[in-house]
Amino acid sequence: MYTSPPNPSASAPAKPWTVPALREAKRDGRRLAMLTCYDAGFARVFDAAGIDLILVGDSLGMVVQGHASTLPVTVADTAYHTACVARGLSRALLVADLPFQSDATPERALDAATALLQAGAGMVKLEGAGHKLDVIRFLVEREIPVCGHLGLTPQSVLRLGGYKVQGRDEAAAARLRDDARAVQDAGASLLVLECVPTPVAAAITADLDIPTIGIGAGPQCDGQVLVLHDMLGLDSGHRRPRFVKDFLAGGGSVAGAAAAFAQAVRDGRFPDAEHSYA
Ligand code: KIV
To answer: What is the Å distance from ligand 1's center to 59 Cα?
Structure first.
């Protein structure tokens, strides 16, 4: 999958991304640009535009399948889209989401993660800490790289009562900091922080050796991710969160928008205060 020649026009290093290279990027202070993607056509464009990490998110349930939440997405759905995206990539590292309850036990997670890696993913992402720490350890011990996901975890939407900023008060912020360290200690290689106040995400980022990838988590994360439809200013039929920015408006084309997003992330220009939570 990662055998095609690198794209010479991309401003980022042309070597294919590997899991160990993520920690090196953090050590070197090189910010990471990540987009979600669900098919080979967009994958090819994003790869050539220098996007470092591609996520087949379970957001596909909302922006591709038209559901009201991510809960209906299955392992088969994610594996199908992962295989499509993998065919379009030569350089970016491909991360695939473990769908709702496919990670409820270590054994179920191993089956689901194996299917996603066999479809072409280089890493799987799962939401939460608590009992998920055993799942992370179980997968990592079996050679499956894991990305954690804390803060607003969309698979918890029923318990949370909506898509809300997390870690606002001191007790919740302390819990998030403890969970982030526990996710790293369990063996995760990357951590997505979603809808977390800027100072809380900054403290977590400073505390960890693995890169943090923010979405609505302020500019001090080690990288940023956006859902592809949000980055292109498409109306996905859902409420538009504060952190969303339309890069197509200034980028002129899909390739230009992806390159503008990547550059803004690398320069530390995105997100600004207007697209973050204080
Ligand atoms: O499913 C998804 O697209 C995600 C991102 C929002 C991080 O998890």
So the answer is: 6
